[in-house]
Amino acid sequence: MATTGEGKLTAWDRQLKNRNFLSPAGFKFTLQRAPKVDFFSQSVNIPGINLGVAVQPTYLKDIATPGDKLVYNDLEIEFFIDENLVNYLQVHDWMRALGFPEHFGESIPLDVNDQNPQQSAYSDGSLLVYNSSFVAVAKVDFSDLFPVSLTPISFSANATDINYIMATASFKYTIFNVESLVGNES
Description:
Elements: E1 27-31, H1 35-39, E2 41-44, E3 49-56, E4 63-72, E5 75-80, H2 86-98, E6 123-130, E7 136-150, E8 166-172, E9 175-180
Antiparallel strand pairs: 1-6, 2-5, 3-4, 5-8, 6-7, 7-8, 7-9
């Protein structure tokens, strides 16, 4: 890396080496507890993060300072529903077991270990992000996912074209970590 005589980076070194834009179609999502959901996934997001702000009052003007808690937005997955509703029911049954099941056998204790991911209250998930050449450039690992909402399924006999039905599931989680899979791009 070249520097000027004063130890500052040159204009050339401040530029990105790879000038290609990230494609929205280059991803693969996996969800351990609901593997049939990720097979038909059409969109997923890397959730936003918000850092709270502490306000330091002064005589003339309040001064904003960085807070100490991060607030993570929900993870949302949009997926096509298969015609047997298998992938939809994976999320539905998971939510039902966490909520108010019809009988005790449907419930999932929150302290169950992850020996059997199909019987756990939580699940881990990961998102691989691909570049324009479909080479993985980043991996996002989500810890302790659980579903909090699932969109309704709407049917209509008035449809003139077949638009296959999709659902969106929203998940809360403990944290996510983003790992770069490419070399140093400085």
